Amino acid sequence: MESDANNLRALNLLAQVQRRSGKRQEAVVTLKRALQGQDVSDGLEVQFELAETYEELGQIDNAVAAYEEALSAMANPDGSISESNKRNASIVMRAILNAYRNAGQRDKALQVIERMRKSLGETSTIPDEILIAILSSEGKYQEALDATLKAKKQFPKEKNFSFLEAQALSQLHKIDEAMAVLQKLFNGTDEDADVFYSGALVMLENLRFDEAEQQIQKSLKYDEKNIGYLVTLSSIYDRAKKYVESEAILRKVLNIDPDNATALNNLGYFLTERNERLEEALQFIQRAVNIDPSNGSFLDSLGWAYFRLGKLDLAQKYLEESALHERRSADVQEHLGDLYYKLGRLDDARKHWQKALEFSISNDDIARLKTKLADPKSSISTK
């Protein structure tokens, strides 16, 4: 039995290496080999790995089937989920939901939320949190706020819904209301760090960079090596055009965690945006994609780096794949518009620039996109 367990772990590690090096078909073979003769309940981690690999390959039906097999191992004979299994079951159902969302199958994703409500019970906040995240990512900010307030009434002791309320208010540009919600959360403990962090996000969302920096610096006083706080500070610096400071913070993050995919992606993307050290930028981004190959934001960065390097076939491959995951991203839509213009597909370019305009909040972004729509030749010629 111990030999079987060791073999399972060894094969799983091999598959992880294969995934990270882009050899995902080989990883599928390895994972299936690992699962041969195993009870699903004994190999849940490997089963989950197999499902994720299928998803990375774009084989959504196979991915969902693998997730469902893992879920069935946690269920009782009548299909219910025991309390001891609810946490793991929620992780698997969330993965199924994300697989459908990433494949653009929104209706099926929403059906999973209702399934979660029944399986996890009325005391679980997870279905509401996921619904709010979906509405927010789709730009349905008022609906997200309404869903948050409804959940807050149902779960009055859950602090997270106050953070989500502040986020929704911020996205509706109701800054004072958002900060008033956060102000009520301070309690004089280390938990205040996250309140300041949320305040930084509110200010960053609304392009008030100095105030955003002040808020995140207060968070860092509680934990100077917090990766999330540091990555956010680097983004604030970048948006404020403090590029040297931004890069220094990201390199600090990579000294703490050399495989931090977000830091790798952001460092590469920020360089790409400035048209600086493009080959080095590409290497950073490729490392991020190898770590998280289905991340739409990372795929966009990779496509954009190839665009800047003039490798339009690779740019098209990764930007179009990114758009399947990040359908309401202004950056992705604008990048696709620029790509299609370079390829001589002006109608497609205008279509995506118009979408980007709809999703943009920055005055600079809006002005740039309007210029592209009115006179693309003058605005794209320097790229």
Overview of this protein structure:
It is built from 22 helices and no strands. Among the domains are: 1-124, Tetratricopeptide repeat domain (Serine Threonine Protein Phosphatase 5, Tetratricopeptide repeat, Alpha Horseshoe), CATH 1.25.40.10; 125-185, Alpha Horseshoe (Serine Threonine Protein Phosphatase 5, Tetratricopeptide repeat). The protein has helices at residues 2-20, 24-35, 44-56, 60-72, 86-102, 106-120, 126-137, 141-154, 160-171, 175-183, 192-205, 209-220, 227-239, 243-256, 261-273, 278-291, 296-308, 312-325, 330-342, 346-359, 363-374, 376-380. It is mainly alpha-helical. The model has no long low-confidence stretch (mean pLDDT 92). Helix 1 (2-20) packs parallel to helix 3 (44-56), helix 9 packs antiparallel against helix 10 and helix 15 (261-273) runs parallel beside helix 17. The chain is 75% helix and 0% strand. It is globular and about 65 Å long.
